[in-house]
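Intended use. Records such as the Peptide methionine sulfoxide reductase MsrA entry shown here are meant for training and evaluating sequence-to-structure methods. They are not intended to support clinical decisions.
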Amino acid sequence: MRTPFLILLFLASVSCQPKNKSEQKEVAQKETSETQIQTKLSNEQLQQFETAYFASGCFWCVEAIFESVKGVKEVYSGYSGGSEENPTYEEVSYGRTHHAEAVEVYYDPKVISFEKLVKVFFGSHDPTTLNRQGPDRGAQYRSIAFYKNEEERKIIQDYIDLLENENVYGNRSIVTEVTPFEKFYMAEEYHQDYERRNPDNSYIQNVSIPRLNRFKKNFKSYLKEEVH
């Protein structure tokens, strides 16, 4: 009878949510200060590419997945989907806003299309779990595919219809929100490239890396050469 409790205790210990108001930030800052930070592309360089926005659970995981995809030039972790301005990690992760943890994806449309990014999105998480992804629970971890125009909205909806028509998830319904993009707020610096910079973190070891590896196994043709 104690097994379910032990499982819940383990999941809580590796949750993306901070253990208290200050501990997670303090630990993350300490970890990242001890690792070399890869130089990001300049704003001028980024302007050459298109952007796409998705939310599918802890942004540490989602960022690493999209970073592995060929044609993707840069990915940032942040917050979107709510109305509150300048949200913080503590506010979002504790469910004090209407935002979700999200990512901003800069990609080269000559190499990868928005349609393929949508396939990456649906193929790298469970879109049938409402307000939950893995051990992380709450609306801040909900599944959202953002669109910037009618063409993108149609691409997303058509793919959802395809998944449902092919009964990919059995009798489980897709609960992904298809939402017009309004604003993306960059997360605090220590969240950027979190998986790469903090490989020994317990959440990264037990949740993020296994999730990335499952994606890589199923989307081999989408991967950059260096991550095969």
